[in-house]
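pipeline/complex-builder :: batch 7 item 3
reading input block
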Amino acid sequence: MIILNKIISFYYREYKLNLSGFQDILTNIIFFFVSIFIFIFSIGPDKETISSIGIGIVWTLLLLSSTLSLRKFYQDDFENGNLLIMHLNGLSFGFIAILKTFSHFIFVQIPFLLSIPIACILLNIANDKLIYLFSSFVIGSFILSCLGSISSSMNLMNQRNFLLGSVIVMIFSVPIIIFSVGVVNLEENFNSLISILFGILLIVFAINPWASGLCLKLALENN
Amino acid sequence: MKFLVNPSKFNKFADNVFLPVLILSIILFSIGLIFSFYLSPDDYQQGSTVRIMYVHVPSAWLALLTYAIMTVYSIVGLAFRIPFGFIINTAVAPIGAVFTLICIVSGSLWGKPMWGTWWVWDARLTSVAILFIIYLVIIFMNLSFENRIVREKVVAIFVLVGSINLPIVKFSVDWWNTLHQPATISKLSKPSIDPSMMIPLIVMTFAFIMVGLAIAILRIKSEIISRKSNLN
């Protein structure tokens, strides 16, 4: 029961923090839409072209804008000492990583989920593809959260070159992009592709607490 | 076999081995180049461009082998707390990057006359390009951390996570329909390559291994010295 209390208070704190800093998440979403506008201006307003490459544009921009918020993943808690306090209260580093990953999924990726229908209207994507896009994004964004947790915990002590964190996420997100765009475009293979995507999710979710926990421990020990 | 995990034993071993390795690499390279340029026959379809294979295939093998060595030494360094594993990681990554670059460049030089294009988005080519980017990220990580203890462990974790890419590179030609041809030599049954082309390929492979070993010995020795004097 004590551990449940700790988890609830952890999420209550995350909720408070994200509510007070709501403009950051809004800025991410505005970045997403502005990049869609720029894409359309650079391609030209031809409806056929836009709807044929629309899914790829949506997925690329979702990936780019979710890597923008990586800096806030652990950095704030690390610098003001909250990470250490959480660990002293009996949460192991791997468990902190899992909790943080869920919190990133809920507070950063879910707003993107809500803004996908508007993006589909702008990019002229057919309505019957929306359900495939949703289902691929729910799985894919959770994979992106896990990868973000790994890369941002790796770069906690890296003061010079933080862009490396985004590059790490992008390298490992290549198969996710391939399969989740495939889910939407090849509807007849929906079941097999979504199974592969789910398998990737399980692998990454298994690696995440181990790798991020070790990196968090290293950073706190050598700070 | 203690020289594989102990820096001072490695230094002694390297002093004995370095000169023979260097001489052997020069000899093997000259024999291999003579074989591959003059003594091996032209292919009946590809003509003379088949000779690019004698550089392309060994460098591809060595790129994979270097990453596999780095993976093993990351496990050794993290699990058994042997710092020599991290020394190897730091020293060997640029060598692997250069081998991968040679592989990509020679492959695209071959692809232009044969496939009619420098680059295709095919599974083998893409995964090798990702391998190259992973090598670059490892090098940049080595440059950008200030704390040495954090740096070496974080790089080792990244190497372990990135080793997912290795089986993808190896089996991409079997799993997907690729333009790149499937394995002809390293498959389990009898290799489907003629002995007149097999011999220069094997000689060139050993020459590449010797060159890589010579450079690796130099880099590992300098890395050991810089750690002893606490340069970074």
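note: Residues 2-221 of chain A form one domain.
queue -> next item
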